[in-house]
Amino acid sequence: MSDWRRRLSPTGNTGDAIFRAAMFAVALLMLLIVVAMILALASHSTLSIRQFGFGFLTNREWDPIKGQFGALAFIYGTIVSSLIALIISVPLSLGIAIFLVEQAPYFLSRPITFLVELLAAIPSVVYGLWGIFVLAPFLRVYVEPPLARWFGWLPLFQGPITGIGLLTGGIILAIMVTPIISAVVRDVLSAVPNTQREAALALGATKWETTLVVLVNAAPGIAGAVILGLGRAIGETMAVTMVIGNRPEISLSLFQPSYTLASVIANEFTEATADIYLSSLVELGLILFFVTFVVNAIARLLVWRVTRRTTGVGLAV
Amino acid sequence: MTTLTALCTLVAIGILAIILGYIAMRGIGALNLRFLVDSPRPVGEGGGIGNAIVGSAVLLLLSCAVGIPLGIATGVYLSEFGGGMFSSVVRFLVDTLTGIPSIVTGVFIYAVVVLRMKHFSAFAGGIALALIMIPIVARTTEEMIKLVPHSLREGALALGAPQWRVTLGVVIPAAASGIATGAMLAIARVSGETAPLLFTAFGSRFFPRNLNEPIASLTVQIYNYAISPYDEWHAQAWAATLVLMTLILGINILVRFLTRKKF
């Protein structure tokens, strides 16, 4: 038996060696794809990285005609729209997950889980279509005027009311990330061992106090779920592009049109004729890649910690 | 407190009902047989989404041809040979790939495929979609294969089968239905993708003739019609959405129905 076979596979069988090598090659391909992604994005944005340097991140001007490119307006739009999304969706998702795991009877929780998951199955472009023709007019007539009337003293709710802008983008994002956050929170809550609940109940805690104990136990996982939702909100493209107004401006008002990193790429990529223009757009893609990569990595680690720790406890018991 | 959490749940389900209701209501009006087979025409002359339906089917087939085998192979590697440092890295990367925005995948494919071929093409679109499918298929495959009892593997090994035959002939068939559901969910997911197609498959107003040229897709068509200023195209966007959602909901409900019997 030749040496290479034995090295590739402990059984020393030729078929095993080939099979193992083939599977390994595919797994290696995954690694290479990620590396290639970084290299391709970096090499195609060198032009703009060279020309603008770090100023790219702090320059708020985006003017293709003058050849001025800065990402600040998009970074601002991305952060604010994602924050609005989280402010709305986190309490909503927590409520849904608590209801499904701690309160709802089995015959209810299964179909409801499916329905909430269906929200995640709706494509982004469909949310966008609905956003343009249903949500935006609704907000323009029924939500934004009262906000302006009661909270108009805040700079957040000033300016012309169009229904298209940061607020609409944030709300669409909130609807889109709710099923994702609630699904992960649900998993995390179910991973909290029942002994915790029993112990709390045995000490005389009410049902709600018991839920609080469970929540505290699951806290890192819940944080992970929220960060996972944030990652999704940051990278969401079509729906936001369709309702956020697509204007590279930084304005405190949530009624004003804005722009996000993802939506400017979607909107202007095929129009970019100058090399520096295209290069700047690819650099926005590179920024988006790194931000979502880091955000996702943090989220995964947090969620893993909870689900692993608790399954460990479960095994020990 | 239960009222409050139940209310949250109701809000989510209510939004789902409203969205689906609008799609059904507005979509059904412009939907007829001609619309399903015709290609787009200028405003005022009707036209349909036949080319987009064919285009989406072609793109899905391409992405499945690339994405499903690679996804399954990655999943098999992670479950059967995983455990080492390298497989943890791969598992982590596959997980993070799921979170990479699809628009970035589009930019990546534009840089490595479209720029090299010097034109938009169905190939580029199919590969972009495949990249999105791989991590989904890989992770479900891994989870499903892990559910196959060890006794089954040991039995086959004890009969003298080499490991590759055990994996291909015993383990994968045992996990086949689970892997198939994962693949179906991945298909449902990518059939709704728009962002990675904008500058890879691009779009077209004609029926596809070869894979080396730009190709239409339902999602890009919906996007272009939705942001157009014409009421007629808006109505067509709703009708196309109804077609797309029928496919996606159909897959999701089918998967639900199939997995219900098992677990």
Protein described:
The complex is a heterodimer of chains A (317) and B (263). Chain A is an all-alpha fold. Chain A has two domains: 3-44; 56-316, MetI-like fold. Helices cover 77% and strands 1% of the residues of chain A. Chain A has a two-stranded antiparallel ribbon. In chain A, strand 1 (62-63) and strand 2 (68-69) form a beta hairpin. In chain A, helix 2 crosses helix 14, helix 5 (72-103) packs parallel to helix 8 (166-191) and helix 5 (72-103) packs across helix 11 (219-235). Chain A is flat and about 65 Å long. By secondary structure, chain B is mainly alpha-helical. Chain B has a single domain, classed as MetI-like (MetI-like fold). Chain B has ten helices and no strands. In chain B, helix 3 runs antiparallel to helix 8 (163-191), helix 4 crosses helix 6 and helix 5 (102-117) crosses helix 6. The radius of gyration of chain B is 21 Å and the shape is globular. The chains are: A mainly alpha (317), B mainly alpha (263). Chains A and B meet through helix 2, helix 5, helix 6, helix 7 and helix 8 of A and helix 1, helix 3, helix 4, helix 5 and helix 6 of B.
Strand-helix topology:
The complex is a heterodimer of chains A (317) and B (263).
Chain A: H1 3-8, H2 14-44, H3 46-52, H4 55-58, E1 62-63, E2 68-69, H5 72-103, H6 106-121, H7 124-151, H8 166-191, H9 194-202, H10 207-217, H11 219-235, H12 238-243, H13 261-268, H14 275-316
Antiparallel strand pairs in A: 1-2
Helix pairs in contact in A: 2-14, 3-14, 5-8, 5-11, 6-8, 7-8, 8-11, 8-14, 9-10, 11-14, 13-14
Chain B: H1 2-30, H2 33-37, H3 50-80, H4 85-99, H5 102-117, H6 122-147, H7 150-158, H8 163-191, H9 218-226, H10 231-262
